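Incident review: delayed structure delivery

Summary: a single-chain prediction request sat in the queue longer than the usual turnaround. Root cause was a stuck worker, restarted by the on-call engineer. No data loss occurred. The affected request and its eventual output are reproduced below so the record is complete for anyone auditing the incident later.

Affected input:
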Amino acid sequence: MDGRQGASGRRGTERLSLANQRDLFPTPFVIDNLQSDAGLAMLREAIEAERTRDSKGLSISNFGGWHSNTQMLEWGGEAAKALIHKAMTMADEACVDIKSPDANRFGWVPQMWANVSDKGDANQYHTHPGSFWSAVAYVDDGYERDTDPGLGGELQLLDPRMPMVRMAAPDLHLKDAAGRPVPSEISIRPQTGKIVMFPSWLQHAVRPFHGEGTRISIAINLTAALKRSR
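Output delivered after worker restart:
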């Protein structure tokens, strides 16, 4: 074999091996911190007072636990208003109005409620139809500083392409840009003082919680609406 041809063949092989993979249509997931311990304490106090007033609560996606009404902005005080402002700021930063990028024409109509979970409580997979963004803020993760992964209670996020991506060959997974297999589910362990935000169409659930403490979280929906002309 001609040495030059061999070199050329090797270069051709090298070129073929440098395929550039791009991951299209990513799903945004935003994580931030709540900075005020005093604010968390005020949220806890408001939730405990509302739970005393309405101990029955609602049953929607929750298995066990307590789910408040969705009027927390009315009974949650200034700390609830500050939390909504935080969520709307996160939403603004994660969006762009493509017809008016320098002056966003859209605002947010918020909805807010509290969830309190004890040992064994969980939430089934669900979405939030009609909303654009959904968020969860953790007032108390309930783990009592225990890092044991067996305590459960993780926020579960489901690949929006499921089950289609597992129909033909369940054990054959796509790779991401780093060469890792793309999972069907993502687990996020809650942490006191964290707030997470994701598109409302993304299916999500909460695994059964087995911590010794009490999990207190706040859920938020943000519906996009055109701002009123002044």
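Verification: The first helix runs from residue 3 to 17.
Action items: add queue-age alerting; document worker restart procedure.
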